[in-house]
Amino acid sequence: MNVIWNIKPFKALSTSELYSVLQLRAEVFIVEQNCVYQDIDGKDVKAFHLMGEYDGKIVAYARLFKSGDYFENASIGRVVIDANYRDKKWGHEMMQQAIKGIETHFGETKITISAQLYLQKFYESHGFVQTSEMYLEDDIPHIQMKRNN
């Protein structure tokens, strides 16, 4: 049961890949988390898109930014795993792929994220440290975290 990982810039995404990514993000961030917010924020065009495919379906996703495109440092955002596959623990593999992707595509190692507070220990296990107090983003508790490897 292996996930196939791909990283692509926005212009290289197929229509069906983009549709699957937006569907997954809407399922989790809008419906599951019951949060009305503007997911399509204009930043997708600057991002590289990390997609994890299993059995022909995109089940894991994150977007990667070079420094200056979202935060001062490179960043990882919209980190999501399809609810039906969370028991597989693919989130750890996805974070390793995301960190490696930023190093490979942008030549950067300093990464900033805006993390949902309940995932703090998950991100700490990948070398991130809390760098802000808790704040609300779309009514969900978040903290800023940085990784300086």
Detailed description of the structure:
- With 149 residues, the protein is α+β, with helices and mostly antiparallel strands.
- The chain is globular.
- Helix content is 27%, strand content 33%.
- A hairpin with an 8-residue loop joins strand 3 (57-65) and strand 4 (74-81).
- The chain is built from three helices and eight strands; from the N terminus they run E-H-E-E-E-H-E-H-E-E-E.
- Strands 1, 2, 3, 4, 5, 6, 7 and 8 form an eight-stranded mixed β-sheet that branches.
Shape type? globular
* Class from secondary-structure proportions: alpha+beta
Helix content: 25-40%
Number of strands: 8
Distance between the termini: 30 Å
| Biggest sheet features | 8 strands, mixed
Encode the helix/strand succession as letters. EHEEEHEHEEE
Radius of gyration based on Cα positions: 14 Å
Poorly predicted tracts of residues: none
Tally of DSSP helical segments: 3
